[in-house]
Structures are given as C-alpha cells and as structure tokens.
Amino acid sequence: MAEETNIILANRTDAQGTIEIVPEVLEVILGIAASQVDGVYQMRGSLGASINAWFGRANHGKGVSVTVTDDQIAADVYVYLDYGVSVPKVALTMQERLREQLLFMTDLTLSEVNVHVVGIIPEKAEKVDPDNLFNDDDTDTDDAESASGKDDE
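== Alkaline shock protein ==
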C-alpha cells in the first residue's frame, strides 16, 4: 500500500502555490501504463479489487505499490504475463515505459521499478459448438448445395 504522505512537486518559478500528489494517483498512472505493455495479460489484484470489479468499479491502481522514502520513489508492479512472451523483454519494456510515463505526467522520477511476475496465463482454446461437433469448417454450405445441383432446380 502507498505511504500516507503526499508528494510535493519541486517549487517551480511559474507555480502560484504548492502542488501535492497523493501516492495512490501514482499507482493509478503506473497501473494503466503497465497494463498497456504488450505481453501483459493483467495486473494482480486483491480480493477488494475483484469485488469492486464485480460492481463495475475499475481499480486501475491494482497490482502496483508505491513507496516514498527520502525523496525517492520506488514502485513494485505485480503482473500476469501471456504465455510465450520473453519475460525479461517484457519486464525491461515495462520498467522503461513506467519511468517515461511518470516523468511525462508528473515530472517525478522513479528510483527503481521492481517487476514481479506472479504467473503466466496460457492461450485459451477456441470453444467447441456442442450442437455441431462434426462440422467441417473447410466446406461452405452454399458450395455444397451448388455441387449437388439444388440451386439449379
């Protein structure tokens, strides 16, 4: 869980006051960026996140934990990956993308991004139609009718 202290952005010359960001906002930013990386099946969520999803409330910060210590921000990301992807390649891409996205949106830099691969999700097989178990997908019904001469009648 995120630490309870707000992050104060560095005072800028053009700012008219202070700008504070709650760590949960960073978790949402990083969660959305991580879920958009190719090869990521989904983020790991908690039971509370699953219950919220049943009620139609998406939790974009699930699977991300941000800790702030001594002006350094560290992120732990927990993901499920698609079967067949290169785990190191996806993890490195994720680290790069999260750093870029947080810098772009908040002007903050991540000191570290720890990627935790929780599981691999295999590809789903196509569903079989129980009413048509022996259907031959190569022949079209129109082609079969024209070959038997039914169209000519």
